[in-house]
Design a protein that fits this description.
Shape: globular
Structural class: alpha+beta
Helix content: 40-55%
Number of strands: 28
Strand content: 15-25%
Largest sheet: 7 strands, mixed
Strand order of the largest sheet: 1-2-3-9-4-7-6
């Protein structure tokens, strides 16, 4: 019988009404039970105290491979992938990850299916089946996952840092694994990978190093009984958690300058110090304190100075790659071209700031301010999806004592100048590692990292050289931040008498509309404001699209020093270009939000182009466009699909072409024109009163549309922009083949899109139900059985209210044309399964979908996202979920079959398909043949020119009304 400890020992927010209980089973499995009677999803997570640091020599990736294999089958549930199938069919999702010292498995599911899902889950850790056939196939999946990462700079640079460490230390390892490490090399040594896998499982998977979190609707006693029953049979071999004392870097790995060649355009500087792990002092939070100061972006900060000099576009600082035994403090800086020429000055300025911190001493008021805000964040934290919550808490259980399982390191509370000083003293020139990434090093490197093939060079830099950099660095007025005026002090919940369920149109004029939704669910001192500027000049040419983007970035750039404190204090903002103009978003604590909103509006009103900042932003945007070709092939395929379907969209190639010719004067003229005509769509939600929301919108109208010389005039009805989508021809298969933009990328990709209908309740629920029923079979057949590629997914698609399905597959195994045939083959095989589906299975899927629709929004951001989509698309079905649930309750099985036969089935007369095929390097020779093959098919259309095709096609009507304003 389990030993129970109530939640009194566990620190939780005052606003958290869930009940917690820690128990320990007789097999030493430590469990946290969470009872939430209000939840509409149950979840579980098991964190196992072993990760890829425990991989045997010569079997790199074995722990990660085991994570893949446990999903397949168990002795009690031997049907392959039946666990994932059960979870998916009952409204849930499942995933796992392998880190250095832990492996985490987690799922969620509809509440009435939790017990059986938990039973299936528990069997992974009791008696898993690891068949020889599945072993061979899943090695291919691991290899495909690694292929996906080979051209990712993030993966490449992380591995390079690990490579330049002590070979005998586990930090040096390659954790993902590939075909070579899991198949070829073991065979050469006479090893059977499956036997090694079973041996690894038996040696390392022991209940005493597992931590389980159960999140359920039932009371704690019932959950405890369930856990006793399901998990007591996990064997306890009394293992110790992995432990490897000592830092991964010896003297030869310090005081080094590494120049590395990235895949993408851009320059990055990473300054890294090995430090004492701050988890040993998590209440004192030395790295949070230092990261807050070194990563600050306000006036006098390191970033502010670098930005003023035109040398950097981004900076972050904090602890990374940490464990109980070692850690690194990292400062990451995104450099401009000019900054790339001043690397030594930048490192010198960083050390100057560190010296400033040394000389200033550790400041108690800064720690207290940080501590107070962290307390507020913890107290008023948003609820998140149970699946995310359990995964986070089970991970914390491996690291912290029980009272801090929910808190982790998020509540610094013990001020200790000596502990902060200890970490600060480790940030020295004698201890530093500098990693500098830039394409300018091409042809200048003499070494290659073995797993990803990253070219690099290595040189030693002594302390005296860095002292010279410090001395030569510009004399700038670096100083510590001032007290943060944005920290909220009024956290009261407003008494909003109008308890409306859906947004209401609070105010309407020729200039604007205001939608309002008071908080009736979450009761936190937070608000969410969206201000959408509909500007007809925003997208009429490729130049206009680029200039709108640069305009929004410059406004953000100008605001940064002022608004950074707001973000630190939990008031977040963003200004982004859209297809129809640009959007201001402000979210967080409502107390001082209006101050920031007014400042943003003022900045837009007074916008002037600063040529030196324009040049920096232009350079950033140019590099981003140049890096489009390095996107994953499946992302390229999705881009082409959107370009073909969206009527008013320009190709990135044309935007790239115009960027070099744009000057500051062009933006000065354009910004005046951009703002000269506008309609403002606003949404205010949360802990905000109607009068406050109205006053905010009236202020915006006064700024832009009133006065002696108004900036903008209201739009004529004809000027409102809409997003219209191409209506594909029925009974026709459309094909768009393309070669991958980066010839070095071996991966190919397919997006097989089936366009179904314009927003319609009955068709919506039929499409959703089919997607739910087919999702797991698609994954099992194309990914698990046929091993086409790690990225294999069936998902719904919604383009401005036009609904459809898309199969997305990325592969090195087969070319896109062959994958397309496999998709069609799957649909043919799936026919009989759909036709012969037992009535109870059909109803089970219907009920699962209803349960998913009944799921409440977890926080204000989720709720806003749902309602704003209705406003932005013009559909205005705020009660969409209720309407669709009613339709589902009346849906008959034959109606779903009829829907499949009409819209989805291969050869269906009303079927409209678009197959976007991106041919990677390994299949480039098949590209030419593919166009001839497509042209020979009856009822097939080869799209050779996207824009000629788009102009020749009819369009779906927009939901936005003919008056220019949306229909009410």
């Amino acid at each position: 019988m389990a030993v129970g400890i109530t939640d009194g020992a566990i620190t939780k927010p005052h606003t958290d009404n869930r009940e917690y209980r820690r128990i320990v089973l007789p097999n030493s499995l430590e469990v946290l039970l969470i009872s939430d009677p209000e939840t509409d999803k149950c979840a579980a997570s098991m964190s196992v105290g072993v990760g890829y640091f425990s991989d045997p020599e010569g079997l790199e990736g074995l722990a990660h491979f085991l994570e893949h294999m446990l999903f397949y089958a168990s002795e009690k549930y031997p049907v392959e992938d039946s666990y994932s199938k059960y979870i998916t069919e009952h409204g849930g999702s499942t995933n796992a990850y392998t880190s250095t010292e832990h492996t985490n498995y987690f799922f969620d599911v509809n509440t009435d299916s939790f017990e059986e899902a938990l039973d299936r889950f528990s069997q992974f850790f009791i008696k898993p089946l690891m068949s020889a056939d599945a072993t061979t196939r899943e090695i291919k999946a691991v290899d495909s996952e690694n292929q996906k990462n080979l051209l990712s700079d993030a993966w490449r640079m992380t591995q390079l840092q690990q490579h330049l460490s002590t070979e005998g230390h586990p930090y040096h390892k390659f954790g993902t694994g590939n075909w070579d490490t899991l198949e070829v090399r073991p065979k050469q040594k006479g090893l059977d990978t499956r036997n090694e896998l079973i041996k690894f499982y038996e040696e390392h998977y022991s209940s005493n190093i597992m931590r389980l979190v159960i999140y359920g609707k039932k009371n704690l006693d019932d959950l405890q009984s369930l856990v006793d029953q399901k998990f007591k049979e996990i064997r306890n071999t009394d293992k110790n958690c992995f432990h490897f004392s000592g830092q991964p870097c010896k003297a030869e790995h310090l005081q080094i300058l590494v120049k590395a060649i990235p895949i993408k355009q851009g320059h990055k500087l990473k300054i890294v110090w090995p430090i004492t792990p701050s988890i040993l002092h998590y209440k004192e939070a030395p790295c949070r304190y230092l990261g807050h100061l070194i990563g600050h972006e306000g006036e006098g900060s390191l970033f502010c100075i670098l930005k003023t000099l035109g040398w950097a576009t981004g900076l972050s600082a904090g602890e990374d790659d940490s464990s109980n035994d070692y850690a690194f403090f990292k400062v990451n800086i995104d450099l401009t071209d000019s900054g790339n020429e001043h690397m030594e000055d930048i490192v010198g300025l960083l050390f100057k700031y560190v010296i400033l911190l040394q000389q200033s001493g550790v400041s108690k008021w800064i720690f207290d301010e940080l501590s107070a805000f962290c307390e507020t964040v913890f107290r008023y934290q948003d609820k998140t999806r149970p699946i995310n919550y359990v995964a986070k808490v089970s991970s914390n259980m491996q690291l912290y004592p029980a009272k801090d399982w929910l808190v982790g390191s998020s509540l610094p509370s013990n001020f200790s100048s000596s502990i902060i000083q200890m970490i600060l003293d480790e940030l020295t020139p004698a201890n530093v590692r500098i990693f500098w990434e830039s394409k300018i090093f091409e042809g200048q490197t003499d070494k290659v990292e073995p797993w990803y093939g990253t070219g690099y060079s290595l040189e030693n830099i002594n302390s005296s050289a860095i002292q010279q950099w410090i001395s030569a660095a510009p004399n700038q007025n670096l100083h510590l931040p001032a007290p943060n005026v944005f920290i909220p002090t009024d956290l009261s919940i407003k008494d909003l008498t109008e308890k409306v369920k859906f947004p209401v149109l609070l105010r309407k004029s020729s200039y604007s509309r205001l939608w309002y939704k008071p908080d009736t669910m979450f009761f936190t001192p937070k608000a969410y404001v969206k201000i959408d500027f509909n500007c007809p000049y925003t997208s009429h040419t490729p130049e206009a699209v680029v200039l709108t983007d640069v305009f929004t970035r410059l406004v953000m750039d100008y605001l940064n020093e002022y608004a950074y404190d707001a973000q630190v204090a939990g008031v977040y903002y963003g200004i982004n270009s859209t297809d129809t103009g640009f959007q201001v978003i402000v979210t967080g604590y409502n107390h001082k939000m209006r101050i920031l909103v007014d400042k943003i509006i003022e900045q837009i009103q007074e916008f002037k182009v600063k040529p030196e900042r324009f040049a920096v932003i232009k350079e950033t945007v140019l590099k981003e466009y140049q890096n489009y070709k390095f996107q994953q092939p499946y992302q390229q395929a999705m881009y082409y699909c959107s370009l073909i379907l969206a009527d008013a969209s320009w190709p990135w190639t044309e935007q790239l072409e115009v960027i070099p010719h744009l000057e500051a004067d062009d933006l000065a003229k354009f910004s005046t024109m951009l703002l000269s005509k506008a309609f403002v769509e606003c949404y205010a939600a949360g802990n905000i009163e109607p009068k406050e929301a109205e006053e905010m919108v009236i202020h915006i109208e006064d700024i832009f549309f009133k006065g002696l010389q108004p900036i903008a005039r209201p739009l004529f009805p004809s000027e409102h922009l809409t997003n219209r989508i191409v209506k594909l021809e029925s009974g026709i298969s459309h094909f768009y083949p393309a070669e991958v933009l980066n010839p070095s990328d071996e991966n190919s990709a397919l997006v097989h899109y089936i366009q179904v209908h314009q927003d319609s309740t009955m068709l919506n629920v039929k499409l959703q139900l089919f997607a739910l029923i087919a999702k797991q079979p698609v994954f099992h057949q194309l990914r698990s059985v046929e091993q086409l590629g790690y990225i294999t997914v069936l998902m719904q698609r919604n383009d401005s209210g036009i609904r459809g399905l898309q199969f997305i597959v990325q592969s090195t195994a087969k070319d896109p044309g062959q994958i397309d045939l496999r998709v069609e083959s799957f649909l043919k095989e799936f026919e009989s399964k759909l036709y012969e589906m037992p009535a109870d299975e059909f109803m089970s899927n219907v009920n699962a979908l209803i349960d998913m629709k009944l799921e409440k929004h977890k926080n204000l951001s989720e709720e806003t996202s749902f309602f704003w989509r209705e406003i932005f698309d013009g559909t205005l079905k705020f009660d969409r979920r209720e309407i669709e649930i009613a339709a589902l309750k009346n849906l008959r099985q034959q109606e779903l079959i009829d829907f499949f036969d009409e819209y989805i089935k291969v050869g269906a007369p009303a079927k409209k398909t678009l197959s976007v095929q991106v041919y990677g390097g390994s299949h480039s020779s098949n590209y030419e043949a593919s166009t001839k093959e497509i042209s020979s098919h009856p009822q097939s259309v080869l799209i050779e020119d996207i824009f000629s095709f788009r102009r020749s096609q009819p369009l779906y009507g927009s939901f936005k009304g003919g008056s220019g304003l949306m229909k009410l």
